[in-house]
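Render this sequence as a predicted structure.
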Amino acid sequence: MRQDTISGLLVTGLAIAVFIGSLAYPIGEASRMGPGYYPAAASLVLLLIGGAILLQARLAEGDGAPNVSLRPGLAVFAGLLLWALLAQPFGLVPATVVLVVVTSLAQPDIRWLSVAITATLLSILGVVIFIQMLGVRLSAFGN
């Protein structure tokens, strides 16, 4: 299976999962959006992107199947999943640090200084933007 096909299937599967998850919340309407509106809309955009990737993979020529590494996709998926599981009980900052560290494992040569700087900056920006400016009810360091 080609790498483009696998990527398209992963994006499409993620879109379907997010859309199903968004149905648990009221969607509302465009003038008065509910909490499920943005995830539903974002999942539809992801679905279109996944479909475009699959179409492009289908139309692409070539007989040879490239060597596909599952490490990057799994690292990003694991990082996002861990962030979603850790953000509420442990807070935004620890969850973001775990996200950056786990997703950095997607690279074959990890530069730990870059990982530390990225985790620090994303944590600070996350607290400032989401907790202080937008008032998202999520603590920085757990309940």
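Summary. The CA atoms of residues 8 and 50 lie 5 Å apart. The mean pLDDT is 84.
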